[in-house]
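Tokens in:
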């Protein structure tokens, strides 16, 4: 008769299998992208056409599975057996000793790895339309990742051992974690109780000196007696909250800038409520970027600012700069782009979600307003690295009944923001789908045609080598679209960790001073690798554009723009 623990594990296995099915369903649901069914039909036709190729793949993997089976039989007879296939370096799913020492788990692991390789090779060698092939490769990898034996309680030795050691308590804790995450509508990636905006993250002293329906403008308190004459205005991405640039004191880029004597203003985007769902891209330029510039210039008493944009904030910033160029308005001394796209020719795997059918549906959905929920975008980005950002936490939180460790970057990542639906649909079509921004005069914004080549300003462009959201070669293309003198730097690591790389920790490296040209590979081949953070290289670059040193500006704001409330302000704390 099965024990209570057995019943709990069986029930939990059913729940977890349902979770995997629901995850895969969200990837292929209407409105996400073209359903893989149509692509699979093309794959079938391709395989029929290339029967010999298909037979060769089948034969090779049949032999490997036969070797695997014979090895299992040999181990049961007390003989040693060399592995037929090994997990890739860095694959954390099969670190437990049982995956090697226990024949059953070793066989299960290798069978899974072989089958996954077979599926991926089958898709990779098929003759399909490039876009269809890209989608099928992506969805196949999602399926392979989801079906890992490590993701299910009855085939995960660590989870089973914990269940037995705790007499089922780990399973009950896992169920509690699962129910709590279902209520939140997302998977917990960090101990969210460990952080609070304004208490131990986003704590750099400053004040809100202006606000409207779209943003609050923060001005930070100086930390030096003298500052550069020209301040820096930061435009963060509106997909997440601004405090990625001001996490904790030891990894705050805002604080780093202040310590260099730079006066910092920063846009804190509003988490958009439904009544603002019809807000357009042009509104974000006129009512946010331009208004923030107006206030910062007035408070600092200068004619020109230095600007910085991060991710989509950089895209928005360059649109604003192109509008200023068309208006022949000279308000900016230099600008910095951090992992931003201007040329959307290659957007990486995220492109599998954005096709004509998807964009048309989003345009219809948001025709009369409405918001795109931040959790939808967060799930999309997480799926690009499902093993790291989804299944690791499924196993840790639900199968093992553990709580995730505190991590400020992942807390920020979970604190997503809603976007105006109209703005998002415009962005999806004109940037991701049609790549119109790179074409001079193709788009009209704020009543003028935009031409990135008219931006004749010094620029610092940062890309990161392992970025899965803004591929570094695509970020490099920005250097050929604007007309000023561009300093391109390539940082190590990915989209966020590569940017938030404090200079004081002297971690990683960056590549600088490559030979400019059209070819990013040629640039990298000629570049110099230097240890440590790109922050140090940026501060040296910035010196040329900050102007003379003047006494630090105290108090914050001025007679027209007085302090409304202390930083970080109300807007950043709103969660839906």
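Residues out:
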């Amino acid at each position: 008769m099965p024990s209570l623990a057995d019943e709990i594990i069986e029930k939990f296995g059913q729940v977890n299998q349902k979770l995997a099915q629901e995850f895969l369903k969200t990837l292929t649901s209407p409105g996400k992208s073209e359903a893989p069914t149509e692509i699979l039909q093309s794959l079938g036709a391709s395989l029929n056409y290339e029967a010999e190729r298909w037979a060769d793949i089948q034969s090779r993997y049949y032999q490997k599975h036969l070797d695997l089976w014979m090895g299992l039989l040999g181990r049961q007879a007390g003989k040693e057996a060399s592995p037929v296939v090994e997990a890739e370096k860095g694959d954390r799913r099969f670190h437990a000793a049982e995956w090697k020492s226990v024949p059953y788990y070793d066989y299960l692991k290798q069978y899974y790895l072989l089958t996954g390789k077979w599926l991926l090779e089958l898709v990779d060698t098929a003759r399909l339309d490039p876009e269809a092939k890209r989608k099928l490769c992506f969805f196949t990898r999602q399926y392979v990742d989801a079906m890992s034996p490590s993701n299910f309680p009855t085939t995960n030795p660590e989870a089973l051992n914990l269940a037995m050691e705790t007499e089922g308590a780990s399973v009950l804790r896992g169920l509690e974690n699962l129910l709590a995450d279902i209520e939140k509508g997302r998977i917990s990636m960090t101990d969210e109780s460990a952080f609070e905006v304004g208490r131990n993250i986003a704590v750099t002293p400053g004040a809100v000196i202006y606000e409207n329906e779209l943003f609050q403008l923060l001005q930070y308190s100086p930390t030096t007696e003298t500052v550069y004459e020209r301040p820096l205005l930061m435009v963060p991405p509106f997909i997440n909250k601004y405090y990625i640039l001001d996490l904790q004191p030891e990894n705050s880029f805002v604080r780093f800038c202040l310590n260099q004597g730079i006066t910092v203003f920063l846009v804190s985007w509003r988490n958009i409520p439904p009544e603002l769902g019809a807000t357009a891209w042009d509104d974000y330029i006129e009512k946010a970027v331009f208004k923030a510039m107006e206030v910062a210039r007035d408070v600092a008493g200068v004619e020109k600012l230095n600007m910085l944009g991060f991710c989509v904030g950089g895209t928005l910033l360059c649109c604003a700069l192109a509008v200023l160029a068309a208006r022949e308005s000279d308000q900016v001394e230099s600008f910095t782009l951090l992992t931003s796209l201007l040329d959307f020719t290659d957007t990486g795997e995220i492109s599998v979600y954005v096709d004509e059918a998807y964009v048309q549906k989003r345009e219809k959905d948001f025709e009369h307003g409405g918001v795109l929920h931040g959790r939808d975008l967060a799930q999309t980005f997480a799926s690009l690295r499902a093993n790291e950002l989804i299944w690791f936490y499924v196993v840790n939180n639900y199968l093992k009944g553990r709580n995730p460790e505190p991590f400020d970057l992942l807390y920020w990542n979970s604190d997503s923001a809603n976007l105006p639906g109209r703005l998002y649909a415009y962005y999806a079509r004109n940037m991701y789908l049609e790549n119109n921004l790179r074409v001079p005069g193709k788009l009209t914004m704020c009543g003028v045609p935009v031409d990135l080549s008219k931006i004749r300003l010094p620029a610092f462009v940062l890309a990161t080598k392992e970025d899965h959201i803004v591929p570094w070669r695509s970020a490099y293309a920005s250097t050929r679209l604007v007309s000023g003198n561009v300093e391109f730097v390539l940082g190590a690591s990915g989209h966020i960790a590569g940017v938030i790389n404090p200079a004081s920790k002297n971690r990683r490296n960056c590549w600088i001073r490559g030979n400019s040209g059209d070819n990013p590979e040629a640039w990298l081949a000629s570049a110099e690798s230097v240890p440590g953070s790109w922050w140090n290289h940026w501060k040296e670059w910035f010196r040329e554009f900050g102007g003379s040193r003047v006494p630090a500006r105290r108090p914050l704001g001025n007679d027209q723009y007085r302090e409304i409330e202390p930083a970080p302000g109300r807007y950043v704390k709103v969660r839906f």
